[in-house]
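ugh finaly. both done.
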Amino acid sequence: MRVFIGFKYKAGDGEERLVPVMYGDLSKQVAGIIKDNSENKMPTVPRIACYITGLELDTSRLSDPTFVSKMQIRERTYEDVAGQRVYGNEQGAGYTVERLMPTPFKLKVKADIWTSNTDQKLQLLEQILILFNPSLEVQTTDNYIDWTSLSVIYLSSTSFSSRTIPQGATEDIDIASLEFEMPIYITPPAKVKKLGVVRAVVQNMFNNTGDAVNINNLIYNDGDIVNTVEYKRYGIVMLKGDNGIAGDYNISIVDVGQAVIDAGLDLPPDKIGKKLDWQLVLDQYGGYKAGVSRITFKTATGGEIIGTITINPIDPTILVASLDMDTVPGNTELTTGTYPDGTVYTSVRSSSKGTIDAIINPYNFNPLTTYGTKANYPLGLRYLMLDDLNLFLAPRLAPSITTNIIDTDIDFYRITRPDQREKASAANLPRSYRNVFEAKVYVNGVSVPFTEVEDGGKFQTFNSESYRTESGKYKIRLNEFPPLEDDEGNASVVKYVIERYTYPDWYTEGDDPDTILVETDVYLPGKPERSSGPEAWKNLNGSDSHIKANSIIEWNGSQWVRVFDPDDITTNIFITNLRTGIQYKWDGAQWLKSFEGEYLPGSWRLTLNP
């Protein structure tokens, strides 16, 4: 009935009046009182009458009738002050609520709209019918323990008028009827148990190593009493939870055998080697408080991630950690990028610029399958690419330098010092000698010109002169982009032959070192048989996108643009995949889950009674 409360109609005098709502299925006694025990009194209009017309068992929603859901609830302490309940900031009593599986039904309800003229009827129908398109969601209670509080109302049929033609001399009240269906549950009473076990250890007589604590510390509470246990013998694995809550993660024990030894558990033979119940482990350390006890993880960057813990009531071998998201590393805002010509690009992404929409392999995923046409690509759409795309396609224009470089694992220079055991200094000046005596590059067996490039390298100044203290890598930059195919239609092969020096440890300037040959074939990656890239990754003007593996690209409405280049960024970058909710970190060489994964012994701890 509350669904129809609050509707108004505009009367003939221009005033807006509320339409009363009543329960339509009245008893004779109540109906007689309303009519003043007279058949000559007519009910006032307009009004809305609601009543139930049917209740059927909904077999399509039946579930396991033996299922019992358990919830651990803790209330806050409170005092009665002047007849009012005043809540404190500490924990009060704890309860376990056991909810039995409810029985599903279909409830059929009818609402009759009484009006005296068509104008009143149309005013009310216009307000009501637009709410059901085709349904209206309702919440029956704000009690979060009630798992049947959410439901929906469907408009199943309508009857515009109850009048018939010809009407005759009498004029009945015009009634428009609306019929509704609503899926509901009838729930058995829940069982509420008050926890009567020991929920906290007031003080431990022994510390974590088994040594007795100083008695003065126990009496005067002035010592370093530790109620935190750091587990140095077994590791755990933290993975994203599957309960749909963003900050929840499942924790499992890696080495069950070591955990049994560490906790001092006495398990029967049939339980050894199987998944370990977290309740058994935590009980050995004095028990825990669900939703209150904390877990702390040490991150690789030296920070800490903190959350509260609860044992999964369905699978007690899983510990659910509800992380404090303020302790989780924040996403890195990628606000700018680089166009293919090297100019700066400003991101057009409207949502968080520290997120991506998906992680994809460009050869297995086609965005056109998802969006139909490039015109439907959302502005600011972002992907993290797992593979190179079109890096060695035959270019239509002059290729950029980044697509013509061949990497090697050879240092450009050999760095020596008079005393190799000491760092470079004014008294221990470094000397650098070329590692490469001669290099040649062949494309399909034909020698081609190239330029030597040193990638990296470091210098220091001693006695007002600059000295190389660290060598960069030897790289080959082709003067022209190689063709994709040879004269016979086979995929092109680039071969480089490097004759490099073999400096002995005793080498001094002026000696003639030996050399060795290094031959390497470089096959063009991607799809070498094509001279044009996949249609899905072309820009609107038909040009190909040249994308490196581990890059993050963004659609700006007409072309794909890099907003993250793995060759330019070496610091920690954090981004979140919106499809999975998992956060990733760039460590300078690869993308890793930022904090999910295995935590070795000593890198995590529990605070059971904070």
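ok and the 2nd:
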Amino acid sequence: MLLRALRTGLSGRASAARPLSSCGSPDGTDHTPGVRVRFAPSPTGSLHLGGLRTALFNYLLARKAPEAGAAPGTMILRIEDTDRKREVAGSAGALAEVMEACGVEFDEGPPELLGSERVGARGGEYGPYVQSERQAAGIYREHADKLLAEGVAYRCFCSADRLAAMRAAQATRGEAQVYDRACAALAPAEVKRRVDAGEEHVVRLDASAALRMPTSGSGSAPAPAAAAAEGAPAVTLHDLVHGAVHFPRSMLDDQVLLKSDDFPTYHLASVVDDHLMAISHVVRGEEWLPSAPKHLALYRAFGWSPPRFAHLPLLLGGGDWAEDGSGSGGAAQRGQKSKAKRGKLSKRHGDASVESVLARGMLPAALLNFVALLGWNPGATSDQEVFTRDELIEHFDIVEVNKSGAAVDRKRLLWLNSQHMRRVLGAECPSSSGDAEGAVVLEEGAEGIATELARLTGGVAADRAGGAALLAEHGAERVWAVMQLMREKARSTHEFGPLCAPFFEPPDLESATAQACYAKHWKEADEASGHPGSAALVHAALEGLRKLDEAEGFGNGVMPVLKALAAEHGVGLKHAMMPIRFVVTGMDVGAPLGDCLELLGRDTSLHRLECFTAGQAASR
């Protein structure tokens, strides 16, 4: 699914790089022309469902129609690769590919990931957009030096062994494990001597000094006069989701800003980059909420106005996602209740990566719809659940995001996927319409059908296995028509395989699926009840169906024949229909029987019934 997903063009803006020391917009002011948001992942592995939701909510906020006189919103991709130990080679490229497959478009970002033809040779006016490149350009060192010069940061020479012993002692005493500021009072001459001697050190924020700085903007409130008192709030965050959140002084450590290898910590790099890139709104997961006071303290230290913050609720796993997280199989599908407890979605709840979910036959549009509803709904005035991307842009409002955790429900994803597949399959064949989303569904469905045919024929069809070969042999229009007929029964593109295979090859009536149908619906003759038996009904139906003319609409005549047959033999219509469905398709599910026989055609339908009745006669 991922490799064939809809490729959408992104609007690119080529421009010159900004001076490193400039802040705010490119003209050097602190004015933000419209909403500017960023998705800033670390390249440490596959994109998680939570990451996709964060990217989507940022994207929807950027794509909302701007207020009168405001500039259009801007969506930025920034790669935060300063944690070199955890970086996974190739994951940044894979992440960009997933975003494009899901239709989440970026206006600025690394040109090597997004394409220079889309975002320009530099990726935009605020580059570079990869933190390791920004580190090499000296951006973070420049800003750390600024804090050192203004007395709101200091150099710390404490060794790892000393810090470990300090934390162990604090833990023994039951105290919060925070830095004890041993280096905060070092004399300037002592600091210079040790730096000149090449002694390894880090740069720490002086939180107390930072909190004494005046505040700017509406992202945080100043510490009250009694802030030094025990338990008094040190920082208040005005969050778009959680409202006013108060953080006690104890949550503010003298955090490390610049590590001994000259790489910044996440906190310094994030704050500096958000300011220099003129980010207006920081939309991120709730797991970052405890870091908010550190970031607001840094904004105070620099004298900058903070952006607006929105911390999204946690995604909760467990329940029916815990079985396999795949959208197929598992206890819930078998009608069993899962006993797994809800908890923060993680690897122990099954694979929650976007690639793995798409690979199991989920449409990108359905997955976007699904993650959009994880914590958001269109409000009390609407009960709409199925949204296209454009409808999400129209309806989304960040203030309607819930505070409470959002349960990741596999059954809901399957249902949404089925709704989007019905929408796509309600249109004409993509080979005629050119619809890219339809082409994805057609190709995925064709692959599933070809795989099922190869399994059924035990290798006879192996040389034509593969969706492309199936489409070449039967034609896209034919495959599309079969999928359209079965669209009400399929929840993923993979489920088209067993549902549609009987329209291309005779069913295997010895298969487990067929035998389950046989055991449930096949009746032997019973003199006591007067039931003629399913075999007799199939034979009688065959005689009636032979009289139907293809030109007059073979399928339209099927139900009148079966209704007359049921009335003649004194059985229910279902007793007359199910044996025919078993013989022709090997299943007890599917589209209306008349429609199935119409699509199979008169000759094929009669041939399968004739072969079956001949076999029944020979076995007697």
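summary for the 2nd one i guess: Residues 6 and 437 are 6 Å apart (CA to CA).
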